[in-house]
Amino acid sequence: MGANIRLIHSTKNRARFLCDILKHELNLIYFEQELKAIEGVSLVRINKLANSIVFEYSDKDTLELIQNKLESFDIEQFQVCEDVSFKHQTCTPCISEEEPSTKGVLRAGLALVAEPFIQDDKAKLALSTIAALPMLQNGIKELYEEGLTSAVLESMAVGVSLARKDYMAANGTNAMLELGEYIEETTVHKSDDLIRELAKPNVKEAWIEIDKDGRKELKKIKTATISVGDIVVIGAGDTIAIDGHIVFGTASINQVSMTGESEAVKKERGDRVISGTVVEEGRIKVWAESVGEDTATARIKNYISTTLSEKSSVGLKATKLADKLVPVTLGLAGFSYLLSRDMETVASVLQADYSCALKLATPVAFKTSIAKAGKNGIMIKGAKSLEALHEADTFVFDKTGTLTHGQLEVEKITSFDKKWTETQLLNLTASAEEHYFHPVAEAIVNAAKAKGFVHMHHEEVEFIVAHGVKTVVDGKEVIIGSRHFLEDDKGVDFSKHKKAIAAALPDKRTLLYIAYDNKLLGTISMRDKVRENAKEMLQKLKDLGVKKTVMLTGDTKSKAELLAKELGIDEVYADLKPTDKSNIINKLKASGAKVAFIGDGINDAPALMSAHVGISMSRGADIAKATADVGLLKDDIEAVSEVKELAVKTMDLINGNFNATVGINSIILLGATFGLFKPLTTAVLHNGTTIGLLANSMKGV
Known about the structure:
Distance between the termini: 46 Å
Shape: elongated
Low-confidence stretches: 80-96
Largest sheet: 7 strands, antiparallel
Number of helices: 24
């Protein structure tokens, strides 16, 4: 791939490469992990749209290592494959699109039916051998490549029957094994179908609004070329291709595929929409906030890629146990021969092993649960995350945006000028704020709409980051924002209204100040409401075995303790700085707690990564969603207890399957060892057990 690599920019500790390999469909998770593993590399950022990779590294020698690594990559190692063998994954794991084949079942079935009508022994041997040849070849191949496995045992069983000229047993066993494998593959394929439903097909094209000679026109472009800030126009029947905010229009949007909401939701100006949802009625213009790989749909596909490639510790335990038990089966086969001196009992013992049910039932159970969660608006990043959720006994919540809605609501409007009524003051503020989508602006505009918003004409609005906005109305300057912005930066006099302001501050979450013509016109106080179902969610966690609930907040200790008492939270950390959260998580972990952290802000990312399992809220910052193990697509705190319950039930199902596999197959093996079962009977019992356990896993929780 060397000819497709080009260093286009480099500094002492940073370099950008142009890589044509990114034009292919790659599993970017694995690709990025491989690049991060290069010694001396501290950061890797892949831009698939620009076909570029940015590295940050320690020294000049590392740059040479990076270039050598890129040039030596085997693209097939990271390319999304079309099929994955259910028994031997030889490429990056992905979803199998190919339907399970019935060829093996038909071949073995025809031999089983035809054999009794053939008189010549040589013809019977030829027919039976040809029918069983793929299985025999697979057994020999596995013996050389992987040692003793269940496939080797199965091949030995059929081979022994052929050697004994027991063609009915050989063909019957072969037919049962082929049928069992077909049903196993079908079951696994169906479990992937459940997850595949969540990976919505890409929207190939979209309409965007452009300026042409001073006029607004529509232009159809490739979805991949949409940029942040483009105005995307979406009509009835269209699937939304980007995440963003509505800037014009009203629509009824079906979000069931992404949030689990069964009914279409009305969305209008200022509301956020997500990719993968469908406009049922209406027509909207959306300001593109997240495009390409940053959209919700793209994140889901990455989740799915991780889900299918990751093995849980309990899954690895089952695989190791199954492999260890293969010699046990061989030992029992030898013991049965010593008891009976009959190769038929040997063939019967070789039919049964623990491998299939142990190796297949566990991942199918995980996939089914992950798919079920996805349909309900909860994205789980793989089996390990679900397993960690089951183990979590301490749930730590960031307060704002998690236990509270994270959406401010106007509580009181105070006018300091008799010429301005409260409604007029609100309309003035909303007229300036309606051009922006930050929480304060949304709260103001929503309150104005509820009171019959009357827009006041104004000049262009200037937005000052972290301070506020300013504009001009009737030739006089309007300034809206923090006290520091108005009083210190703009020189607005606050002295006349200090008492009124002081009285409003203790009980209010946020106080917005409005000045007109350089005079303080009034204030608007807002607060963030506690989620209505937060208390019930916390109690449900306790019922599910959670030992401790913890709240982290920057609020004062007195306010935090009042809320904790109201919700029934066990422990509170207040007056926190953003950097304190991960330290508290690490302290809890050091005490032996299995920690789940739930947050939504940019400063929550370190805590989400530090916890045993991190859960991000739907309205959270992108970095919080990227670092979390579980992402909520619906804005409902009850989803936290839902996913905990799912984890508990899933692990109970897996443990039940595990015990049933060992118990039932042990009975079958002992029965075969002492000559109670014929080879065909053992094959039916063994494969029937595997199919039953797979069906139980597919049924889910």
